[in-house]
Amino acid sequence: MAGRAIIKGTQDVSRVEAPVTVRAYLICAFAAFGGIFFGYDTGWMGGVLGMKYFIRQYTGMAYPADLYPYSADKNSPYQIYKATFHLTARDQSLTTSILSAGTFFGAIIAGDVADFIGRRFTIITGCAIFTVGCILETASTGLAVMVVGRLIAGAGVGFISAIVILYMSEIAPKKVRGALVAGYQFCITIGILLANCVVYATQDRDDTGSYRIPIAIQFLWALILAGGLAILPDSPRYFVKKGKLEKAAKALASVRGQPIDSAYIQDELAEIIANYEYEKKVVPQTSYIGGWTNCFTGSVFNGNSNARRTMVGILMQMMQQLTGMYRFHHLSSSSESALVRLSSLVDASSGINFIFYFGVIFFQSLGTISSPFLISLITTLVNVCSTPISFYIVEKLGRRKILIFGGAGMIVAQFIVGIIGVTAGRPEKNNKSAVSAMIAFICFNIMFFAATWGPAAWVVIGEIFPLPIRSRGVGLSTASNWFWNCVSTLVQQYCTIGTDGFVQIISVITPYLVGTAKGDANLGAKVFFLWGSLCCISFSFAYFLVPVTPPPYPHRTRQYTDTYLVGNQRSHARTGRQDDGGSHPAQVSLMETIHHVRSRYGSHLNWGGDGG
Fold first, then answer.
1. Domain limits at 503?
2. Are residues 503 and 564 in the same domain?
3. Per the CB 3.0–4.6 Å rule, which of 223, 327, 343, 583 could disulfide with 354?
4. Rounded to whole angstroms, how far apart are CA atoms 206 and 208?
5. Is 471:305 a contact under the CB 8 Å cutoff?
6. In total, how many domains does the chain have?
């Protein structure tokens, strides 16, 4: 009835959530579809940049075969001209890096938007922004429109990549939250795979369809995600934060597949409310600026402080990028240099980033591989097939353990690649077996990343922040991912390009490390020692800074519910004994929690069987 919250506690204090249903899995799996944006948009650019028609369209250069007769002689006019047939380093850098610039700012802005209009509508807004950018990309016939389109699309991807993690973390059942959020990373790998397949299918077309088809397919992802979210409920925690408890109850009942008057729903909602009340006492709500400064309150040496959580979130995403895991996608030059450029390319790939940003160009540069596009597709398949391993180990072993294990595995794989590269795999030896071994250990590197650091980094940032700062904390962490993605991409491109500086994209560091031009470090395969060393830092970060139990608040909430409101009767709640009034202490604590929130927000609740 109106004005009264009909809330009943439970004598089983271990029972908080409803049993995990197929519906819960499906809702979270659909939300994880946002990872397709991340992966696909990351994956298609590399292949497109290496397409002959795209290069001719954007540079105005004629095809080498149209000017000179074919010759295998490196000093022939054909081969000399062919070596120059690509986008300039500046244009490659701009078209690739501008996306990460858009996503960086989009992720930061998305946190505030999600607190204002809700998680669901923020993601839908991101889809709309992305669609505008995609239209410009598809329609472009020159660099200017493409760059503007990439920037706008990047802002949309920033919205989606940040808030999908937030949304999934808030609606997923705790028992399987890690596995379900890991599904986001799996969708990223699926997006990368799809991009590789589409690019592989259209690469030889001699018309605008060669690049417009891979770009335009992204409309489908936006339509599916926005359309699906339009009928899904918003996060119950968002409604609790806004004081809309009736909507919170309905949303929670929907995502759990339970009646609104179910004891499971009432218990879990009361837990969420009690949790939020506690967090508000720890993180007082002040002004807009104060909301941002709350992310940095406390000492970084205090494991429970907001500053420590924010630092861990930002550094977690930075370390994920510095393992080198996303860098192979944009490497699709049409140049087929000989094995001599193996060092320049292999080294820049401390791992997967290089492989996924610059994979095609990298394999083309090996000279011993007949179909670099196909090999790049195979490495993508390794990434996809390895990610589901995380669904099991993230819950079985825990977040921190798999980060440590994965870091150790990547260190070993990368140092082996580096050792082979400076010994049997040196370009002048033209040793195909050594090159194959390097590729094999690159695949091992991908496997370790895909099963550990890839998904676990997203799981951790979705869990470590209290509700008052969660949207901004996740936004800052995701922005960190895109910022370092941008930096590492820049670095990789300078590193992988050789004398003409072909791949200089965003960063200014890596290109000089492996570049062979005058003034470049020309590290060759030695760069893997650098990437391996960075993985040593990531390993140390996971060992010393990542908490053993990343989600501190969710697992502490029942204790708070009993302690904060009915402190001295906590032992009775755990034993199931009733107090003198005949009501169960845990029940009293839950009802008082609801009453406290209702009095603060002036809500009049009636949670009966009709959901009214």
1. 24-50+86-232+301-544
2. no
3. 327
4. 7
5. no
6. 2
Nearest to 547 by CA among 461, 453, 449: 461
Q: Which of 397, 442, 390, 388 is nearest to 415 (CA)?
A: 442
Same domain, 364 and 509: yes
- Check whether residue 469 and residue 567 sit in a common domain: no
Q: Is residue 227 part of a domain?
A: yes
Residues 209 and 175 both lie in one domain: yes
N- to C-terminal Cα separation, the chain:
9
Tell me whether residue 327 is exposed, middle or buried, using C-beta atoms within 10 angstroms of its C-beta: 0 to 12, 13 to 18, 19 or more: buried
Contacts of 582 (CB under 8 A, 6+ apart): none
Give, in order, the Cα–Cα distances in Å from 367 to each of 343, 467, 567: 12, 53, 71
Give the distance, in angstroms, between the CA of residue 214 and the centroid of all CA atoms in the same chain. 21
265 and 318 housed in the same domain: no
Structure tokens at 340: 């001599």
For residue 150, give the nearest of 162, 141, 159, 138 by alpha carbon. Answer: 138
Q: What CATH number does the domain containing 130 carry?
A: 1.20.1250.20
Last residue of a domain, one of 507, 526, 544: 544
Q: What is the pTM of this model?
A: 0.74
The phi, psi pair for 328, rounded to 5°, reads: -100, 0
149, 137 in Cβ contact below 8 A? yes
Residues 215 and 276 in one domain: no
**If you search the block for the tokens 């032992």, which residue do you land on?**
571
The answer to whether 494 and 96 are in contact (CB under 8 A) is no
**Cα–Cα distance, 324 to 578 (Å, whole number):** 57
| Planar angle of CA 131, 357, 198, nearest 5 degrees | 55
C-alpha distance from residue 575 to each of 12, 270, 566, 599 (Å)? 9, 20, 14, 30
- Bridge partners of 358? 328
> Tens of pLDDT along 233-290?
999 999 998 989 999 999 999 988 888 888 888 888 888 888 888 878 777 777 788 8
Q: Are residues 343 and 429 in the same domain?
A: yes
Shared domain for 259 and 214, answered yes or no, is no
